[in-house]
Amino acid sequence: MAREQLGVLNALDAAKTQWYHFTAIVIAGMGFFTDAYDLFCISLVTKLLGRIYYHVDGALKPGTLPPNVAAAVNGVALVGTLVGQLFFEFMKRHGLHLLGTTTTWFLLDIAFYSQNLFQKDIFSAIGWIPKAANMNAIHEVYKIARAQTLIALCSTVLGYWFTVALIDIMGRFAIQLMGFFFMTVFMFALAIPYHHWTLEPNRIGFVIMYSLTFFFANFGPNATTFVVPAEIVPARLRSTCHGISAAAGKAGAIVGAFGFLYAAQSTDPAKTDTGYPPGIGVRYSLIMLGVINFFGMLFTLLVPESKGKSLEELTGENRDENDEKQIQMDPSRTVPI
């Protein structure tokens, strides 16, 4: 059995680049495009839905979605993704490595999706964009989209390219550990002196540091959590363990989408969005995200380094091949189970 599996893997390793490779790249890219469209643009859509369908004539503030509707709109795509990945992939366990990949992906997505979905509220809270009451719907969406695009271009996209350039030099483990570390540092640096960053002369500094959390998310665990589960488990379990790890990530995204929707609300009832109870505020939400990133750094210690090793070396499949050869040469030899 091991020899047959290695034969398949060797054939894949020796195969030349063909048309189906590019087909796979395009399919994967379109899948991520639709995923990103649902998850990263939904914050702008909810703004418009609130203004259009929940507008109250004479109100001081523009309309906003009620908490239950906002939670459903933000979370429904993530719930569907989680169910799909579990339905198709949930079969077996693979020890501490699987624990490491699932927990790190889970913790990352709590922090990463929370930041993406609610960065519009953070920009308003520090005064980088005007309050919603001072803008019409088109102006508000434009301001938010411009801010998010600026951060994406200067940090998110740049972080991915740093990972592409350095992943086989620094290694997966080092990049993931470094990413979680700096995400933790910058979250605490934003949260602890939070009042300092809300002052007008310091707003640009806040935006720069906030952008760095996205940079080190993508030059860090938001890239490596996709890669590692596909490299560190045997071929017969690879898609299963990757699916379980990805499902854990989407579970974390659901926690972030639903939990921080309420948590980031002001502690002052007079300053919360319509229909929301008081939360813990932006400052303590950032502290909580910093703690989550710190635990992600700890659970990264369960993930082995796969740089410079073949899939067979990482999963021990070469040992199975060698054991079979030695048994054929010496039938009296027993192999430990």
Automatic annotation (TrEMBL):
Membrane topology, as annotated: Multi-pass membrane protein
Gene3D superfamilies hit by this protein: MFS general substrate transporter like domains
Protein name stated in the entry: Major facilitator superfamily (MFS) profile domain-containing protein
Biased composition (Basic and acidic residues): 313-327
Spans traversing the lipid bilayer: 20-49, 69-88, 95-114, 144-166, 173-192, 204-228, 240-264, 284-303
GO terms for MF: transmembrane transporter activity
InterPro entries (alphabetical): MFS_sugar_transport-like, MFS_trans_sf
GO CC, one annotated term: membrane
Region described as Disordered: 313-337
Subcellular location: Membrane
Keywords: Membrane, Transmembrane, Transmembrane helix
Domain of life of the native organism: Eukaryota
One Pfam family of this chain: Sugar_tr
